[in-house]
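Subject: sequence -> structure tokens, single chain

Hey, anyone have a minute? Need the predicted structure for the following. Not urgent.
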Amino acid sequence: MTSSAALIQAIEKFAYWMQTYALPLWQQQAIEASSGACAESMNEDGLAAFSLDRRTRVQARQMFTFAAAYQQGWCSQGREVVEGIQRYLDTYAQHPTYPGAYVFKLDAAHQVVDDSLDTYDCAFFLLAWAYQFSVFGDMQAKARADQLLSLLDKQFKGKPAGWLEGSQGGTRRQNPHMHLFEAFLAWFEASKDAKWLARAAEIFSLFELCFFDHRHGVLYEYFQQDLRPLSFAEGQVVEPGHHMEWVWLLRRYQSFTGAPVDDYCHTLYERGLQFGQDINGLLFDEVDNLGGVKKASKRLWTVTELIKAHLAEARHGRPGAELAAANAIEALFNQHLNTAVCGFYIERLDNHNQPLAQQAPATSMYHLMMACLEACQYERDLLV
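Reply:
Had a minute. Here:
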């Protein structure tokens, strides 16, 4: 079997699982009928944990997931699900201080238990609304995105650059910027409005000047207020999964702008595999800048980002990347999707790749859906 044939077979398996098992399970069992809200997580028996507090980022990620599912023809009720989640947010979660934003967390009775605003969460609202605009032609989603972007600029723009963490302040991170980058690119693709690409360019500059360590070839996570990186004594880590996510994002940015990202992608990809991959093809959660393993557990999202990075590099002709993508999809099934309840998933493995007993967080559906979208697009392009 050729590498392309092996990859197509793996992609079709992935898409079948998403359409046939995961989406129906999360729609039927994890959407609260009375409110339209998504459950925070699901138990191993396939029943949602509706009694838990609900972070609004979960709602945003599930709006993206079901909008994308509707777009693919995988969920005929996707629009109703998305509109129900949006009504829930507008009814219960609107921020009292920052118009156009939402509080961090509600309880199961829809009462606000944490009214902080998190820039990381805002990135996912922007992403969800980009898909609502693109898939449903929802002009209100565009107005929401414009209002939230204006709020971020007026209230949370950081110095010398970038955006602050939100209303609580704290150590600055690359992660919210990475997801803003993703959302800005999604909005540019959906709207062709150059303002979104200009915002993405700001974050690309931050990546080049602050987040990426040119000496060691790694991406740092945590920064002082002036965007100087924390020391390792202060808690600095390197996350191989984020190396892979940036490979995919930089390739997307390159497709819109022609930016010279080849060297960055090569280094992030090679270092991520060299420092972060175990013998089973999974990625450790955390390493240091010299490749020492700091946290040997493996979360599900790191595999989905590995799949996306392999596909992005395969598009650019990297030898072996197609087969690597096929193998990563198989690793996802063998290690994370091999569950008694079809559509459920194992969120975290220990250092011996044994499942850690825990609920499946709804947030991981975003990672699974985005990887599945990329894989299906790659297959379509192969078959043209």
